Protein 1
Amino acid sequence: MGMAFFADMGGFRLQTRNSEPFPIDARQLLYLVRKGYVQQPVFKPRMIDDKNKVDVLLRAIILCQISWFLITVIGRWAQHLVVTTAELTTVSFIFCSTITEIFWWHKPADVVMAEVIEIDVEINDILTSAGQEPNAWRMTPLDFASREEWWWSKTWWNFLNILRKMHCSFGSEGRPVDRIADSCQRVLPRREQYMLLAITTGCFAVFFIAWNDDFPTETERMFWRGCCITMMSLLYIGLVLSELVQAYNIFQRRSQQASPGLSTPRSGTITHGKWASPKLQKLVRRLDKILDRIRNNSPDKDPELYVPLRVILPLYVMGFAYFFCRTYILIEDALELRSLPPSAYASVAWEKFWPHIG
């Protein structure tokens, strides 16, 4: 597990004959091992543990700190003391962080130097034996061994490309890339998707605790309630949209398998009849080019990153609504401090729970 985490972090770089080293992920490393290019084990687990800057003791201390904060919040509720929205926001972050820490228990942290794997084989020989074109890759020559775009990763790349055009750079711009970016979205199996749904539901449910709290104004209370309902609704609307997109993709693949020679127009392409005037036809073609840039805004027009408008437009609307709600919650955390009841400044009287302490 630790070696897989280390590889997906970009901890291994492949050095082939007559080529610069480039990062490889866990699935690419597994491919090299299975094909006999790399001998197993690549490195001993002790080597990866030595690079890890966070050990079990440090993780345990962090969990103890956040546990004490949660116990304090629960104690305030038990004694009917005010729990501020800022504390609730912290609890929601702690909820997500704790789950992440559990899943990342074996993940190395703060690794600076990658390990170089040297093999006496040319990269073109690896690509040729796998039936791949020498230059038909996007990030690294071993893309074919691990790359698997799905609807969420395509949408995420579309969003990142917009940020890049705004000069907000993410990851490496070179080819091949010099590191594996954190923005790479791996395919999430169905079971893990529902697990993520349950975790996110728990995170959003924390904000509903302040449903009847005493906000400085009634307007702020209504905005808080609206944001809570909106975020929870967007979560399950996204679930429905995900199911529809996956069902549509399955239907499309089966249709292509049933009629492999049938050519269908690209989804979302604007068509016009012969009755249209030349000016209207020109306008339609120009509009279609603009929409095509929205569907696929990757610099190299990678066909794997094509996103239909019926998917991307609803997601952007939902993303903007979610951004507005989260921003308001953070702002309200600060605004509430201007008018707090006296019990917000009181400490938990632990002797009421354990009288013998006092």
Note: Strands lie at 12-17, 22-24, 115-122.
Protein 2
Amino acid sequence: YVLGKLGDDFVPRESSALTGKESLPERWILTKMNIAAKQIHQALEERDFPRSAQVIYQYLYGELFDIYIENSKSIILSGMPEEARSAIDTLYTAIESGLRLLSPFMPFLTEELWQRLPRRPGDDTSSITIAEYPEYESSFHDPRSEVAYELVLGCSKGIRSLVEQYTFNDIEVVYIAALNQTSYDTVSAQLSAIESLSLYSKSYKTLNFSILKPGEINPRGCTVFPVSADANIYLKVKDGIQDAAEEVKRLKVKVDKAVRELTATDDFIANLSTVQGNDVAEAMQSAETEKRDVEARLRALEESVKDFEDMIV
């Protein structure tokens, strides 16, 4: 796929340096690539080879192949020429760097694939085995774009999950409830991306989307998918949810699960606070983020339970 999109006449840019015109998904995958390089270096220095292999697998398969390549197809196929070229340049950077990251683990396969890629102007490296190994590059680190695009992905995942439960023609409105101003701005700017990512597995028809501002009253009688501490997805179907009691039962199962997850997260944070080490601060930050997300999910589910309980006659 990559070679086909690059084309026989593709010439990479002289360097992988940012142009400042990269789209949100481009900035996201470059950040993920950068994080992977940093984590692999750290794992190799610690002789933690299983961890390093896990990191490269997650980057290549979980982020580059499953997400960026799939989500960039529409830009490459139907975007403006400048947008398409930028997406292709980023695709080249992401896959070429990924092969170099993978080369110590799969030298023969990566050599074969790397030789099929064009070289950057001035680069006469003859083999991936002697190519410079990717390192962390501070200019690629863009946590805001990382968070923003993962919100886009989370919203599209939630919409697909809810849409799959109902006949498409029975769906009236999909509400995206932003829980803070930053997420509202992101969802508003990326709504077209959310729409396209939400519908590819269900239908090419168009759904009606509505973005709710922070603090706006959530719609009643809608099934909910809590995305994170930044957003919830609500789905309104024609004539509403017919069996409110069954919906309450289904939601309470999710409430119980969220309660267990919150307890486990609190226990993990408590244990982590007694540990010392270089990675503790990063792990603590990740755990605190997870706790906020679980708490937000629990609130959304409990509110939905109360809403449907009020509907039971």
Note: The mean pLDDT is 90.
